[in-house]
Amino acid sequence: MIGQAKVGNENLDLCFVKLMMVAVGNTACKGVEMNGVGITQWKDIPVELLLRIVSLLDDQTANVLSGVCSGWRDAISFGLTRLCLSWTWTSAKVSGPGPQQKFQDLDLNRLNISGCTSFSDEALAYLTNFCLKLKLLNLRGCIKAATNHALQAIGRNCNALQSLNMGWCDNVGDHRVMSLAYGCPDLRCLDLCGCMRITDDSVIALANVCVHLRSLGLYYCRNITDSAMYSLAQSRMKNKGLMWKSMKGRYNDEDGLKSLNISQCTAQTPSTVQALCDTFSALHTCSGRHSLVMSGSLNLTFVHCSCAVQSHRTFNSIYHTAHSRDCSKFISMIYMIAETHLDSC
Question: What GO cellular component term, any one, is given (predicted)?
Fold first, then answer.
């Protein structure tokens, strides 16, 4: 039904009658009774039942249903905590307060508009006013939405934000990242891959403010240098001291940066990246764990985590032990051959 462009009232009424017939198994039935309340029309469906139905639908269908009537819109808004608009791609042309009026009562904690290249910054800024509990936001590829105006609104309204993806929003610069860092200090995961305008200033601000940062994506951010890596390493030591005091000595060495992507970032030196890897024990270059990604940076080929170094040492130890054993056997054989030759003489 949703896929049809036009559906008349008679068809909707007929669908409702058929639905009620299936529900009670009576061809003469025009409605059912639930908790003492008669259900004879679509609008009579209880909110609890409607929310249960919507929970089984995809985001696209739920969005369509929210436009049926004000009652359904309010009910869906009341129970909706996650919203994905990435299926709309370039068709999500929301540009002002009017079109997104149906979202004003949302209490979202997850919002995904990745790939919506026509989603405007005004729409996103307006939407953040009703997403005060937002924890996850995916803006990947939303070039028009990721502006100073929208990102300042996110930093002002979404202080509980923990995960943000701004990958390939190539108009994002230092000022926008810094405003986000100060407005959302609880950020845990941040993807800035392809944001080629950012510099060390962005990473330094994140290192100083976002003490819970666990994952950072800087793929193809070629303006990032050793200064940014040093700031991350120094923040580790500073934050470790602060958290040690606040937790009365209960500090986990696994806390801190656990994933870092600096592929195609060619301005770092091996010594700096190696120092960063040594500082964060959860960063690995070894096979199977690989949480420090450096592909495309040939000068970082010899950066290794402690696991890889230990594995190399173990291999060398085994090799040298076996080699020494083989040498001993060879020498013994030489002595035996020499003794046999002397005896025959």
Answer: SCF ubiquitin ligase complex
Chain segment 310-339, per-residue pLDDT in tens: 544 444 454 455 555 656 665 666 657 666
**Residue 337 token pair:** 């051959």
Alpha carbon distance 259, 160 (integer Å): 21
Query: What tens digit of pLDDT does each residue of 162-190 get?
Result: 999 999 998 899 998 999 999 999 999 99
Q: Give the CATH H-level superfamily of domain 59-317.
A: Ribonuclease Inhibitor (3.80.10.10)
Q: How far apart are the C-alpha atoms of 297 and 186, rounded to whole Å?
A: 30
Q: How far is CA 333 from CA 326, 327, 339, in A?
A: 11, 10, 10
- Threshold 0.90, pTM exceeds: no
> CA-CA distance, 164 to 285, in Å (whole number)?
25
Whether the Cβ atoms of residue 67 and residue 61 lie closer than 8 Å to each other: no
In 3-state terms the chain splits into helix, strand, coil percentages (rounded to 5) of 50, 10, 45
Burial classification of residue 38, based on how many CB atoms lie within 10 Å of its CB (0-12 exposed, 13-18 middle, 19 or more buried): exposed
Q: Nearest Cα to 139, choosing from 116, 108, 170?
A: 116
Provide the residue ranges of all domains of the chain, joining segments of one domain with +.
1-45, 59-317
